[in-house]
Amino acid sequence: MGDETIGHGNSPAAWTCVLIMLAGAALSSFAYIFASTEGNHDFGTLLFWVGIGIMVVGLIVGFVLRKIGYGVGGSKLKNNGH
After folding, report:
1. How far, in Å, CA of 26 to CA of 45, rounded?
2. DSSP 11
3. Quick one: which of 82, 79, 74, 78 has its CA closest to 14?
4. Chain center to CA of 55
5. Alpha-carbon distance 69 to 53, whole Å?
C-alpha cells in the first residue's frame, strides 16, 4: 500500500466551499447560454455575474469555516482515528 494523506480536503469547510462554488458555476454556465439567446443578453449577463459572486462567497465561507476550526484537523472536528 502507498502512503496516503488521510483527510486531505475531507472536511465540512471544504465540502461547504465546493458545494457553494458548484452552485455558482452551474448558475454562471446556465446564464452564459441564456445570455446568448435573443432578447436575454442583459439579464443573462447579470445572472452570470451573480454566479461568479456566489463562487467568491463560497471561497470566503470555506476560508472562514477553516479558520474557526472546521477544516482538516480543525479544533471543532472529532478525531475518531479514521
Report:
1. 14
2. S
3. 74
4. 6
5. 25
Report H helices in 1-82: 12-35, 41-65
Which cell numbers hold the place of 4? 496516503
Cα–Cα distance, 12 to 72 (Å, whole number): 8
**Band of the pLDDT at 77, cuts 50, 70, 90?**
confident
Residue 6 has pLDDT above 70, yes or no: no
DSSP 70: I
Contacts of 73 (CB under 8 A, 6+ apart): 7, 79
pTM of the model: 0.82
